[in-house]
Amino acid sequence: MLSAMNSRPAGATARTVDDYRDSIEQLLRPLAARPVESVAVPAALGRKLAADVSSPIDLPVFRNSAMDGYAVRADDVAVAPVTLPLAGVVAAGQPGRAPLPVGAALKVMTGAPIPPGADCVVPVEDTRADGAAVTVERGRAAGEFVREPGTDVRAGALLVPAGVALTPRHIAALAAVGVPTVPVFQPVRAAVITTGDELVPAGRPLRPGQIYNSNGIALAAALAANGATVVSVEHSTDDPAMFRRLLSSATRSADLVFTSGGVSKGDFEVVKDVLAAHGGVFGSVAVQPGGPQGLTVLDGVPVLSFPGNPVSTMVSFEVFARPILRHLSGLPPVRTSEAPLRESVRSPAGRRQFLRGRLTENGVEPFSGAGSHLIAGMAWADVLIDIPAETTELAAGTPVLVHEL
Amino acid sequence: MLSAMNSRPAGATARTVDDYRDSIEQLLRPLAARPVESVAVPAALGRKLAADVSSPIDLPVFRNSAMDGYAVRADDVAVAPVTLPLAGVVAAGQPGRAPLPVGAALKVMTGAPIPPGADCVVPVEDTRADGAAVTVERGRAAGEFVREPGTDVRAGALLVPAGVALTPRHIAALAAVGVPTVPVFQPVRAAVITTGDELVPAGRPLRPGQIYNSNGIALAAALAANGATVVSVEHSTDDPAMFRRLLSSATRSADLVFTSGGVSKGDFEVVKDVLAAHGGVFGSVAVQPGGPQGLTVLDGVPVLSFPGNPVSTMVSFEVFARPILRHLSGLPPVRTSEAPLRESVRSPAGRRQFLRGRLTENGVEPFSGAGSHLIAGMAWADVLIDIPAETTELAAGTPVLVHEL
């Protein structure tokens, strides 16, 4: 699975995006078997259902009225107008066990039980109340405005299938059949370790050569938005001992670890140096931004190593991690669509490029400037434009595949 | 604004969906002016930004290398191959103040400062290191692989505009320029009161005539999924005193109150009876499901009264409340699209119908059975199919507007 990227000569032998993503997805797929816990339905919004849930009851539970009106025998109102004595009123929530006397009408509210003997409901709009009697102005056939038990949901019928992340409409349906708790998977637990001597936290002034550390914050937000629980976000200097210590703590508490930085071809690559010594595979993927990538299984835990540039990190997450994470969390797949380019674009030969873009009514607008360091474009974009590796130039108007961010 | 629906005769004079939704949106629009609080960027995911945020710094902050390689003067490598003495190494995070000696090369890592005097970077792939010297095999023009300060973001440039709900990409950009906190609106606070003697909580056996109370759970989930904070979910019997007590508590703690049930034409309509006495407007909207609706301003707080049937409640929320709530929360609008019907449908004359449906590759499949009480369809559906009021029948293949749930 961890085929040896780094044993190949550099350059033309970079792995393809699809090949590398497949490797990651194979490694991560076992995380679908997370422990199951029982959660009260109101608290289960967004959680991934661990088993099919069937309705414990018929719905409607009892024959009831679909309208405010009068429960009658259809035969008694076959010739209208007809005036019937009023035998009483049944509100929603009342047992409604008293049978309908022959030739009479019982006033019923929407949802109220239909009394034995009645076989249809005349809506109140088609009647005139007259003290102890009601005049029915239009007859109804047997069954009209009567909801029979189990016509919506039968007891035992599948209501929500295993594997979906519960949305408000699922929660509503589960609540309507009185399901109090559901079995859901515990979310995937993720840990993030950023690296680099040059990184400082927000709110401090920068000294020469320093930049702000954004990858920890950004990856934590992206993980949370895609169904994972972030158990830790730590920063390591380029000191291998510190990185090793944080790694070891991360693999103890998380199902999946992300690192940023320390993976390229420089002399001081703490992530690559430490993880390659534990079997990690580091090398080039034919993608821009985000070429240098690493994949390791450490203490049984997958470790995805992204490059340190903030835009490269976020694009790596979108391309390599987000699709499988959404699957593991039961969330719908990342949306893709096709849209015409509003401007021509150039792309490097041999590398699949993910340009930041924005969907408009007239197509997708690429962010001007293809540098991998364009934070401004990341804030502005709402899609990634997927330019195939073999493409070097696309004219305005060419349809392109876009992935929604 | 609260035009008197109930002063018109019943039937043909029901308000249109658009007209009624406009009334609600006018009432709710002032809720956009919620109090502002300052929140740390990592905790601001999903919050609505209350002011434009501009970059406090140039990005890049300093001239730096776009590649691992050698910082040189372009003139010194104009004729390649050429061997230059190695003057040292600059890692990312180092101040990089030492100038480049004339005719020499400085090894630089990606992101490392470009030393004064150097004007381009030769990627490591185009070089051969040779002890104290490096051989450059391909020359580069001035500026190549050098990132100039401010070329990504200029200090003072708008990074994220006011009014958006912050997504991971916004969080990433804010973190990258070192913004520690952002001003965000407090979420809209919503309270829910369900009504009806016949309702019982999940987990208890049903006695004759009883049904499970799902609307409180369902509305709370739908509100949370659309950016609101649910401050309370209460249930009232049909006792007006109890309902009044819960209402009064809800309007003290919430910006917006939802009620379910007690709005139709029966004899016991606690919501309508109590709120109409406080100026509430109750009447028919030409929609199915969800016709009976009520709108009140009580103690300055808008109260939206939905019918009690669980599907009617959820469709009412989708049609009348969700669009404006998403706007108030800075979330993207409800998605709509057009898709061909996979089966013919019938629809009642004079009422705009929202059928539960499911999008497939070949069009939208309507849930079979148009009754408003079809919980099974609600769990199954992922869109509402919008059938215009004047339409009574649509053939399979007809394109229809769908709203994503």
UniProtKB/TrEMBL annotation, chains A, B:
Keywords for the protein's UniProt record, in alphabetical order: Magnesium, Metal-binding, Molybdenum, Molybdenum cofactor biosynthesis, Transferase
The keyword Metal-binding is assigned to this record: yes
EC number: 2.10.1.1
Cofactor(s) needed for function: Mg(2+)
Residue ranges of domain MoaB/Mog in the record: 191-327
Pfam families in alphabetical order: MoCF_biosynth, MoeA_C, MoeA_N
GO biological process, one term: Mo-molybdopterin cofactor biosynthetic process
Family, per entry: Belongs to the MoeA family.
Job of this protein: Catalyzes the insertion of molybdate into adenylated molybdopterin with the concomitant release of AMP.
Alphabetized NCBIfam families for the sequence: Glp_gephyrin (NF045515), molyb_syn (TIGR00177)
PANTHER family (alphabetical): GEPHYRIN, MOLYBDOPTERIN BIOSYNTHESIS PROTEIN
Name of this protein: Molybdopterin molybdenumtransferase
Source organism (scientific name): Nocardia bhagyanarayanae
